[in-house]
Amino acid sequence: MTLQVDVVTIFPEYLAPLGVSLLGKAQERGLLDVRLHDLRTWTGDIHRTVDDSPYGGGPGMVMKPEPWGRALDAVVAAGGPAPAPRLLVPTPSGRPFTQEMALELAAEPWLAFACGRYEGIDSRVLEHAGDRMRVDEVSLGDYVLAGGEVAVLVVVEAVARLLPGVLGNAESHRDDSFAPGGMEGLLEGPVYTRPPVWEGREVPAVLQSGDHKRIARWRRDGALRRTAQRRPDLLAGLAERLDDRDRAVLEQAGFDCPPGAVAT
Ligand code: 6GU
């Protein structure tokens, strides 16, 4: 199965990295099919205008609805009788994009992205699109980018690496920090490779012991400490799944343990 991805943008060249490395290979293998479209194709004036000043005043410019309406019509029409794609609209005012959403999107046959620039796209475009396809506004996090193109790179990479056959076994996503049943919502701890001593720093002896049970426990300890330090919000959500040893590790490292389940 191929995941088709259509991207409408005023900067198609911004998406060139989708042809490189893992995603480039996925496209060569027919697992991913990225189609880039220049929004200005669907402008109607000599200046190929895509923006205008906002109703109600305020700074910046808003993307005009007509080119977007025609662009989305053309993308959907090119699919023939296929059900319309899921439309994703990157914006700092969207819902947070998560690994859970990446897994959900990886199960779709067709995704379309509308890249806004300036202060965003006239809201009626997304309302109108919502009459014929699922529309999700998504945000990467709490900071502001200049446009949606970088967010498309992020979302497509996060989704494509989940497609069957894109990753080799060696790069399996089973242990991803945010994979359900993988690291169980903990951040991955530190990793090492050869040489055993570098710049006077030794690889922890336990990792060279061959004792897989001890290694697994050591890794979990590192993941717990790192998560407590960097993402206490994640740890709080895991309280119910921490055992006594987990709690001891965290207390010893000077972290307050999230309270466990209260018996009823
Ligand atoms: Cl998805 N788009 C833009 N323009 N800025 C962002 C973002 C998206 N996510 C965080 N900041």
Bound molecules: 6-chloroguanine
Please compute the radius of gyration using only Cα atoms: 23 Å
Q: Write down the secondary-structure element order.
A: EHEEEHEHEHEHEEHHH
Biggest beta-sheet profile: 5 strands, parallel
Helix content: 25-40%
What is the distance, rounded to the nearest whole angstrom, between the alpha carbons of the first and last residues?
Answer: 48 Å
- Please report the number of helical segments: 8
Strand order of the largest sheet: 2-1-6-5-7
Mean residue pLDDT: 94
Tell me what portion of residues adopts beta-strand conformation.
15-25%
Overall number of strands: 9
Given the helix and strand composition, which structural class is it?
alpha/beta
**Shape, per Cα inertia axes:** elongated
Poorly predicted runs of 5 or more residues: none
Provide an overview of this structure.
- There is one protein chain.
- The chain is elongated and about 70 Å long.
- The protein is 31% helix and 16% strand.
- β1, α1 and β2 form a beta-alpha-beta unit.
- It has eight helices and nine strands.
- Strands 2-1-6-5-7 form a five-stranded parallel beta sheet, sandwiched between helices.
- The chain has 264 residues and is α/β, with parallel strands linked by helices.
- Bound molecules: 6-chloroguanine.
- The site of 6-chloroguanine (6GU) has 14 residues, from β5 and β7.
